[in-house]
Amino acid sequence: MREAIGTETIFKAVIIFTLIFAAFLAVAITYNKAYRMKNQAMYILEKYEGINDNSLRIINNYLKNNGYKTTGNCESGEYGINNLDENTYITANGKDRFYYCLKPVNKDEKTYITIKVFFRFSLPFLDDLLTFKVTGETKGIRNF
Fold it and tell me: 142 in helix, strand or coil?
């Protein structure tokens, strides 16, 4: 009888460890995808020297073509993009959901743009558990 209880306990521990490892792996993969999206968007903003029609069009096409569909809340004062088919942004009020957020900050005759993209941890039977954000800031873009 003692051996049966020991085997059952070990079996439960292995199952729990496997589930935790699978959850960690799922979060790492989705975080990596969001991180790549953020880095590419930062590169595009730097290349096209800020927020303009060209940079928004290219970022939106990149996100659309890579299957990015996660939305999240932008803070008040940030610019949010809520439609990847249009090259326009609106000022966020803290309540609406956006695909990504932009916030330009002027310092020392340069503009630094903070970008925020989102990723979510979801399981099929629990839907969306948590939504996380990945932020980054571009290099200084010279003001003209």
Answer: strand
* Token couple for 114: 């903070």
Report strand pairing: 110-123 vs 100-107: antiparallel
Tell me the residue length of the chain.
144
pTM for this model (two decimals): 0.82
Q: Could you tell me the residue ranges of all domains in the chain?
A: 2-142
Closest listed residue to residue 90, CA positions, set 65, 118, 133, 56: 56
Predicted confidence pLDDT, tens digits, the chain (144 residues): 556 567 888 899 999 999 889 888 888 888 899 999 999 999 999 999 989 999 999 999 999 999 888 899 999 889 999 999 988 899 998 788 999 999 999 988 899 999 999 988 766 665 656 788 999 999 988 875
